[in-house]
Amino acid sequence: MADTAKNPKKRCNGGVAEDDAYKSKSSKMTKQAAADPAQALASARHEFGEHGGVNMSIEASATFTVMEADTMRKMFSGELGPDRDFFVYSRHFNPTVLNLARQMAAIEGTEAAYCTASGMSAISSLLLQVCGAGGHIVASRCLYGGTHALMAHFLPRACGITTTFVDAGDLEGVREAIRDGQTKMLYVETMSNPTLAVADIPGLSRVAKEKGVMLVVDNTFTPMVVSPARLGADVVVHSVSKFISGGADIIAGAICGPASLVNSMMDLQHGALMLLGPTMNAKVAFELSERLPHLSLRMKEHSARALAYATRMKKMGVKVIYPGLEDHPNHAILSSIANPGYGFGGMMCVDMGTEERANRLMHHLQNTTQFGLMAVSLGYYETLMSCSGSSTSSELSAREKELAGISPGLVRMSVGYSGTVEQRWSQLEKALLRMQDELVLNNNNNNS
């Protein structure tokens, strides 16, 4: 059998094969469907199993055979590829991983996507590909600690890529920081880690287009809640390990953007993804693809719980930070860019003022009332909490934390959805009341 008829029975919605294996069809859907990530995902190609199973098969092969000897030359020259179901090696493209990529592209409303072994591998590969040696980035001064360290320390040392950190909420300051001819990228998080400042993505997109730079948005905190690409972002990155996975058991990442970008990153001679090898395992991709259909339900519940707890804590006089509260400085921005029905996200912060008080609160929440768990990461069905300044933002210097607005006592919470709202609120309230009693007792002892 000739290789040009290698797989005549591709199974997909409507029986029509994709033009490009990693592309989403979301751009051809109705405006209503494209505006809702859940509808876009439901309209994406459904990959069936090898024998007609409702779930796709896992393609666990590292390498792939060909029927004709000359076919391998054609694949390496680019004449044949995954768009026609020809695969060379799973570090390049893998059918199961490509299915997850199509789903991610549908959710984010981008032309294409590529899934990687971790969020940081997605970010680092993208920065190296786009910026090149000596390139310049303008980035928000409040970013995940690992991303900040990559930009502030590793890239300058390794390849001369430098970053100017700015207040992303000051559009004029962002514009002034962009260096004509040198700046390649403007990089922000939809909701900053850990301060929960919300980026004005449409405004930043206007600045980026005016200056001719790529706008990259990390949407890890707000999948489904916000769709940056539909608001003007060029590329969206994710740590898929978090809300998208939902089980705190998988490390993964994704890059969602134009097909031309994915093609360049997979180039055999020059592509960062191809040559650096941040490959996602096919079994991981299969597990993640099975979790995506209920991501919208999970995000709605995360958001609903966070809003309920934040509202009640505010009434108690607790210094709570949540963009869903009307007094949050970016509440109006998030309200204007959020997808209807998904709330304001599942991340919430409590500022206890000092690291000692933050640690004491977390101790009570985990060990006294069993409200949540002291752990980094986010997006789990149980509430996870950490003192950001001494954990996930520890890569920042004291001055950098101050500029980013990270208080020493800032407790970042990823609000879970296990148990009932009232059950969990009772546990949270008891811990907060315990803290208030201890503060009163300490004050009395100090005054006596």
From TrEMBL:
KW GTP-binding (keyword) present: no
Needed cofactors: pyridoxal 5'-phosphate
GO molecular function, one term: carbon-sulfur lyase activity
One GO cellular component, as annotated: cytoplasm
Record keywords, A-Z: Pyridoxal phosphate
Positions carrying N6-(pyridoxal phosphate)lysine: 242
Any one GO biological process: transsulfuration
Pfam families: Cys_Met_Meta_PP
Renumbered residue ranges of the record's region Disordered: 1-36
UniProt record similarity statement: Belongs to the trans-sulfuration enzymes family.
Protein name as annotated: Methionine gamma-lyase
Species of origin: Iris pallida
Lineage, broadest ranks: Eukaryota, Viridiplantae, Streptophyta, Embryophyta, Tracheophyta
